[in-house]
Write a structure and sequence with these properties.
The complex is a heterodimer of chains A (10) and B (212). With 10 residues, chain A is largely without helices or strands. Chain A contains no helices and no strands. The radius of gyration of chain B is 17 Å and the shape is globular. Classes of the chains: A little secondary structure (10), B mainly alpha (212).
Chain lengths: 10, 212
Amino acid sequence: KLNEKKKDEL
Amino acid sequence: MNVFRLLGDVSHLVAIIILFLKIFRSKSCAGISGKSQVLFALVFTTRYLDLFTSFISIYNTVMKVVFLVLSYATVYLIYLRFRSSYDSESDTFRVEFLLVPVAGLSFLENYDFTPIEILWTFSIYLESVAILPQLFMITKTGEAESITTHYLFFLGLYRALYLANWVWRYHTEGFFDQIAVVSGVVQTIFYCDFFYLYVTKVLKGNSKLTLP
C-alpha cells in the first residue's frame, strides 16, 4: 500500500 | 511538476476547450457522446472533492475549477442548450457496464478504505473507460468530424504524457502510484487504434474521419 501521499496531480 | 505533466495538463485543457468551443460555436453536439461527457464530469467531481480541504498550489486549484466548470458546461450544452442536435440513437453505450465494475473495483483495490480515497480511486478507474461511449459512437456512425478527432487526440495524448510523467517521477523521486499508472496504461491503450487512424487519415488532410 502506498504511503499517505499528497495528491498533487490533477 | 515536470514538463511531461505540464504538457499533459495543457493537452487535457486544450482537449476540453476544443470540445466546448466546437459545441458552443457550431451550436450543435452532433457526433458527440453525451454519456462520455457525463462520465468525465463524474470523474472530476469524485476526484476533486479535496478542492476545498487541501490546498496544493494556485495552479492545482485553478485547473481543478476550470476542468469542473468546463465539463459541467459541456454536459449542459449537450443535454439542455443544444439537446435537439444530440444524437441519442447513436449514443447507446450501456454505461452501467462501466459504472458497476469500476465502483466494485474501487472498493476492492484502493490505498485506504475511506470515502474520499475510494471516490478518488473510483475516479481513476472511471477515467480509464469514460471515453468508450464516444469511441463506440464513432464506430457506430462510422465517421467523426475532424474537430472531434482533434479533441480525442489531445485527450488521449494527455494521459500518455502522464505515463511519461510517472516514469520521470519514479526515477527522480521514487514516486510510484500503482493505481494511477495501471489505469493510465489501460486508458491510453484504448486510444491506440484511434491514434493510428488519426495519423494515417486526419493528418492527411481529410475533412473528416471515416472508418473503413
